[in-house]
Specification:
Elements: E1 7-12, E2 15-20, H1 23-30, H2 44-50, H3 59-72, E3 82-85, H4 86-103, H5 111-127, H6 139-166, H7 176-184, H8 195-226, H9 228-242, H10 249-252, H11 257-268, E4 274-279, E5 283-285, E6 288-290, E7 294-299, H12 300-303, H13 307-310, H14 325-329, H15 350-365, E8 368-372, E9 380-383, E10 385-388, E11 393-398
Parallel strand pairs: 2-7
Antiparallel strand pairs: 1-2, 3-11, 4-7, 5-6, 8-11, 9-10
Helix pairs in contact: 2-5, 4-8, 5-6, 6-8, 8-11, 8-15
The structure holds protoporphyrin IX containing FE.
Protoporphyrin IX containing FE binds next to helix 3, helix 8 and helix 15.
Length: 399
């Protein structure tokens, strides 16, 4: 971006791609409600991982599944002196939370499924820049097909167990699985979802629901471990609000310091590094004429570090920039803070994830102080979402 400016064309193999952090283009494309800029098609291993689930689907199917997800994930469905590697720990925690809230099972019950999904994620990462020749079956092809069959079978088992436990259609429960099953048995064709649809959503929500939140929690711990003044401020707020008890949903909205910390973490280490769309038809975007079927790429990381928006201190950890809200922090350009995307395809799990982070952080802060282990090596890398390549080893000191 420093060399080419805010808008340029980049060749992704044989395909041109418009890369831009221009605010007007971003607003026009990301907030478009008429499907002029749909999500890009996904292929290969990513297709196996996400199927035609909510993250990638379009048209009527997307409208139907999005309504269902909005209904379930409105943010209310969340009730809830040793070195540890927090990234791995948070993977288990967030997996457990999404399993319990969305599918009524636990991390332990779904452990094999998670391990398979993580394996698939690693396969995607190591093949991201490889060219696949369809005539050759690689070891990764064979393994990913095996994983796909395993996940399918496991999900059908989960559905059958719920059917057996509940008996009646009305008693499937009000979590995501229950809502999907009710839709599956609906006699109204407009609501009906197939078993394949259910499996795709199941994989989508497992992946979308824990990968990103694991990143948020891990990077928050990292930043608090090195900025101990903020760690103290956040601890004080947690003690004042919850007095050593577990947080309750009523008081979550009263958190001021922790929400500033969460926002600053999402700004500096956004789990989703880019938003991608495809122009259906030829279109003028700013001064650029973009042919139909061209990808537009919005690099969230650059948008979040743009000094024209955030000021010269854009690269520094300064949670106080959010003390008077997002509009003030972005110099009245709230669309430039997009950790959860924006417009019709923005994240339906944003409240859920933020509440999860608030609860987990305040519970940890009330029990431990923590510092970064000297073994830590700073190496953020993109594996679907932004991961710490060598984990985040932290020393926990009981209070
Ligand atoms: C810190 C946590 C999270 C971050 C940073 C995050 C980020 C995002 C972003 C940036 C998008 C929009 C992508 C685009 O416009 O191309 C998105 C979409 C989505 N997110 Fe999240 N997400 C988080 C947590 C969650 C959780 C907890 C769930 C599920 C409970 C979830 C489910 C989804 C789904 C299903 C979509 C696709 C929505 C659609 O296309 O209509 N996310 N997320």
């Amino acid at each position: 971006m420093e060399i080419s400016g805010k808008t340029f064309v980049y060749w992704n193999g044989p395909k041109p791609e418009l890369v831009t952090t221009n605010l007007e283009i971003l607003k026009e494309v990301i907030n478009d409600k008429d499907e002029n800029f749909p999500k890009d098609d996904v292929e290969g291993y990513l297709r196996i991982l996400l199927g035609d689930g909510l993250v990638v689907s379009s048209g009527e199917k997307w409208v139907k599944m999005r309504k269902l997800a909005n209904h379930v994930f409105h943010g209310q469905s969340l009730r809830v002196g040793k070195e540890i590697e927090v990234f791995e720990e948070f993977k288990h925690l967030t997996s457990d939370i999404i399993s319990r809230t969305a599918f009524g099972s636990s991390y332990v019950e779904g452990k094999d499924i998670f391990q398979m999904l993580w394996k698939l994620t690693s396969i995607i990462a190591r093949n991201a820049h490889k060219i696949q020749l369809p005539i050759f079956q690689t070891r990764d092809n064979v393994e990913s097909e095996m994983i796909d069959r395993f996940i399918r079978k496991s999900f059908i088992d989960i559905v059958e167990k719920r059917e057996k436990d509940s008996g009646e259609v009305d008693c499937f429960g009000d979590d995501f699985l229950g809502s999907l099953m009710k839709a599956h048995y609906s006699v109204d064709e407009c609501y009906k979802v197939t078993m394949d649809d259910m499996i795709d959503e199941f994989k989508t929500f497992y992946i979308a629901g824990h990968e990103t939140t694991t990143g948020l929690l891990s990077w928050s711990m990292f930043l608090l471990a090195i900025h101990t003044v903020w760690q103290e401020k956040a601890r004080e707020e947690s003690f004042n609000l919850f007095k050593g008890k577990n947080p309750n949903s009523h008081d979550l909205s009263k958190m001021k310091t922790i929400i500033m910390l969460i926002r600053e973490t999402l700004r500096l280490y956004p789990p989703t590094l880019s938003l991608i769309r495809r122009s259906k038809h030829e279109v003028n975007l700013g001064k650029v004429k973009v042919p139909g079927n061209t990808r537009q790429h919005f690099p969230v990381l650059f948008v979040h570090h743009d000094t024209e928006i955030w000021g010269e201190d854009a690269h520094l950890f300064k949670p106080e920039r959010f003390s008077q809200g997002v509009a003030k922090a972005t110099n009245n350009n709230p669309e430039m803070f997009i950790p959860f995307g924006s417009g019709p395809r923005s994240c339906p799990g944003s409240n859920f994830a933020t509440n999860e982070a608030k609860i987990a952080l305040s519970m940890i802060l009330q029990r431990y102080s923590f510092t970064l282990s000297p073994a830590y090596v700073h190496s953020p890398c993109e594996v679907l979402t932004l991961w710490p390549k060598f984990g985040i080893p932290i020393f926990l000191h009981p209070l």
